[in-house]
Amino acid sequence: MDNKKNNHGNLRNRLSIGAVATMLQNANFKGFFTGEIYQGSVKNVCVPGLNCYSCPGAIGSCPIGSLQSFLSGFKFKFPYYVLGLLIFFGAILGRAVCAFLCPFGLLQELIYLIPFPIKINRFKGDKTLRKLKYIILILFVIVLPLCIKLTPFFCKYICPSGTVSGILLAATNSSIAKKLGTIFTWKVIVLATILIASMLIWRPFCKYLCPLGAFYSLFNPISLYRMSCDKEKCVSCGKCANICKMGVNPKVTPNSFECIRCGDCIKECPTKALFASIKQNSH
Asked: Using CA atoms, how far apart are residues 150 and 26, in angstroms rounded to an integer?
């Protein structure tokens, strides 16, 4: 009973932090009514999560969109600034960005809370599908934009955050609504599929498709904010592995590429053997 209360409290805290982060990244509130994109100087700064540049409320830029902009330009420019910020966020937080600072991650969590008769935690092929996000990162974010200029492939054909932004813009700006075509229809289908899947599977976009999560995952084993397991306190009850919706066994690999540092396993652990901290610990 105490663990259920703890996990509910952890969920509320995570959703609250995510909501604040989303509002801060989309603080141009008048844009939601006027349908105009914010063009101020702050727009040159990349936010840590997947938050589309074209969202009417966005005051910053998406790091994935910015990276593609550099790579697909007619005159190649190495993306020092964007990569520097991505490495900075990754080196400090790892995939904790996914759990607490990503607006689309928050949307998936909220949809998962919708009562649905089927909730899928694990299925055959899950581990194989996890590799898809790395393929998307390499192919759609890096290789194709480098080969075909002025075409940000991930943003144009896949990004669900961009589709949400397009829907919001079209709802308040009729001139934009008239320009939406076949590609946008395809992206609406992609978005709808992800949102429907989010009712059955916890954060399916984060698990299988997100190139930003793929990039941050590479820093999980070395990031300053990291998970630790005190083997002396651990009683091998398996509760941490059972509660993990990302399919991680925190006792074995507390800093797995898949861990988003949501904190559910920490709250579930009966002996307080698991913890997250800035200080690197080894046991």
From this structure: 26
Report yes or no: 250 and 227 within 8 Å, Cβ to Cβ: yes
Tokens of 258: 């898949």
Q: Give dist(CA 216, CA 276) in Å, integer.
A: 17
**Cβ neighbours of residue 179 closer than 8 Å, sequence gap 6 or more:** none
- Each residue's pLDDT tens digit in the chain (283 positions)? 566 667 788 999 999 999 999 999 999 999 999 999 999 999 999 999 999 999 999 999 999 999 999 999 988 889 999 999 999 999 999 999 999 999 999 999 999 999 999 999 889 999 999 999 999 999 999 999 999 999 999 999 999 999 999 999 999 999 999 999 999 999 999 999 999 999 999 999 999 999 999 999 999 999 999 999 999 999 999 999 999 999 999 999 999 999 999 999 999 999 999 999 986 544 4
Give me 121's structure tokens.
């935690």
Contact 225, 92 (CB under 8 A): yes
